[in-house]
Every structure is written in C-alpha cells, then in structure tokens.
Amino acid sequence: MAAERMLRIAITPHEICPAEAAVITAILDAGWDYVHLRHPAASLRDMRNLVEEIPQRHHRRLKLHGHFDLLCDFNLGGVHLNRRCPEIPAYFNGEVSRSCHTIDEVRLYAPSCRYVTLSPIFPSISKQGYIGTLGHDDLIALPAGKVVALGGITPDRIGMIADYPFVGYAVLGYLWADGVTPGNITERLDAFAPTK
Of 7, 64, 157, 163, which residue is most buried, by most CB within 10 angstroms? Predict the structure, then answer.
C-alpha cells in the first residue's frame, strides 16, 4: 500500500504526559487518523479530564484501550481490545480494533475488527528489549486492509512497511520519547509526511 494512503495512528504512553491534550490535538489537527488513549494506570477521573480537554471535534478519532465507561459520556471513535481489556462492553456497538502479537492472533481477530495492530514489527522504542520474530514470509501473507504495523515505527521505516500489505502504522515511542511538548510535536509529525 502506498505510504501516503496508510492509516496513521498515534498511541499514548503508559502515563499521562504534561500538556497531553494539546499534543493529541496537534496530532489530530495534522491529519492523523486516530489517537489511541492507552494509560492503563490512570484513574477514570484522570481519563475523563483528558478527554474533556481535547476539542469535541476530535472525539470521534479517539479510541480507548480501557476506561470503557467513558463511552457512555462521550461520542468517541471506538475501543481497542488487548490482554488487559479483552472484551467489548455489552452496551457498545461501535468500531473495534485489537492488539495482536502473532500471526495466529491476526487470523483469529482481524475478521471481526476494523483493524488490528501487529507488534513488534521492528525493535520497540518504548519497551527496551522488545524485539519481534516476524519474518518476511509472515508479513507478506498478512490479510490486506486489516493490519496496522506497530513497534519501532520511525519515519525512515515507512517505506519498508509499505512493501507489505499493512493498512497503516501506529506510532508510540518516536512521537512521545524525550519530553514531547505542543511545541516540538509538529517537527516529529512532519517527519512522517509523505514525500512528494
């Protein structure tokens, strides 16, 4: 898939960062498709405060990795299931995505999801020592239009991702490392802009 048509997804780090709502707003203002709100250790109140600080025009592009009760109060973009939160809430009938770490998981979950993330594709930036075992033959056989690359995603690796049937890529470490701020996020986002 051509890099300029790929889904671009940002995933927040473990802890809520200072000025995170402004950073998320900048990411979505720059045209990225979704921001996944991860924050497993945050309280429901902290997550509610974060969502409230993000302009409502962007709420449909926010996906929750937990804290699913917020779906009752905000018009959010969906849920992202994972090992910590593996079940769709009974009251939810919106868009679902899911974390996968093996080809077998992709085969199992992709048919019922808008997309799945597969990681790690490259050595992780945010989790030191987290290195994938997926090879060329695994990646070339991925189902088209369903799998988002995750793990060690940097601007110089987008061309390699585009050689496989990924529908997009998700970025965590490159965007949030070393003190991201509303002032420096634009430079990091610009590095992912398709070349003309």
Answer: 64
Peptide bond into 120 cis (omega under 30): yes
Cβ density class 132-165: b for 16+ within 10 Å, e for less:
bebeeeebeebeeebbbbbbbbebeebeebbebe
What integer pLDDT is reported at residue 128 of this predicted model? 67
pLDDT of amino acid 193: 84
- Biggest distance spanned by C-alpha atoms of the chain: 45
Q: How far apart are CA 77 and CA 36, in angstroms?
A: 9
Q: pTM, whole model, 2 decimals?
A: 0.93
Task: Give 114's contacts (C-beta < 8 A, 6+ positions apart).
Answer: 78, 95, 96, 97
Q: Is the dihedral of CA 23, 27, 29, 34 positive or negative?
A: negative
Mean pLDDT, the chain cut into blocks of 10 residues (196 residues total): 77 94 97 97 97 98 97 97 96 96 94 96 71 82 94 93 95 90 93 74
Place of tokens 């090879």: 135
CA distance 96 to 111: 11
DSSP assignments along 38-96, one per residue: --TTS-HHHHHHHHHHS-GGGGGGEEESS-GGGGGTS---EEEE-SSS-S--TT--S-E
Alpha-carbon gap, residue 40 to 158, rounded angstroms: 28
CA distance 17 to 32: 19
Q: What is the pLDDT of residue 4?
A: 52
